Amino acid sequence: MTITRKTDLLREALREGREIDALRIAKSFRMLGDFKVAVQRGWDAYQNPRFARSLGRDPDRLVKQGIEAVRSLYPV
Questions:
Q1: Distance CA 22, CA 15 (A)
Q2: Alpha helices for 1-76 (secondary structure H)
Q3: Pairwise CA distance, residues 13 & 27, whole Å
Q4: Which residues contact 21 (CB under 8 A, 6 or more apart)?
Q5: Burial class (CB in 10 A: 0-12, 13-18, 19+), 67
Q6: CA proximity to 19, closest of 59, 46, 50, 44
């Protein structure tokens, strides 16, 4: 039986260009440090862009920032 860690799945998603999947995985991590807000806001904006817009935020920009944060934390 092979045990796959979430970080391995996240890095695999990034390598394969599945950035949204990587963001989905990362949003559940506790130890994101200074990147925590960017990752969580990015995922929330992806899930509910209308709400982000209602707060005066650009959902596409938030998602992009979240993905950049994930890439900074977990380089491939």
A1: 10
A2: 6-15, 19-26, 36-47, 49-54, 59-73
A3: 14
A4: 13
A5: buried
A6: 46
Q: Please state the pTM of the whole predicted model.
A: 0.90
* Distance, CA of 65 to CA of 72 (rounded, Å): 10
d(CA 52, CA 46): 9
pLDDT, tens digit (0-9, with 9 covering 90-100), for 19-61 = 999 999 999 999 999 999 999 999 999 999 999 999 999 999 9
Q: With contact defined as beta carbons under 8 Å apart, do 63 and 48 qualify?
A: no
Place of tokens 């990015």: 42
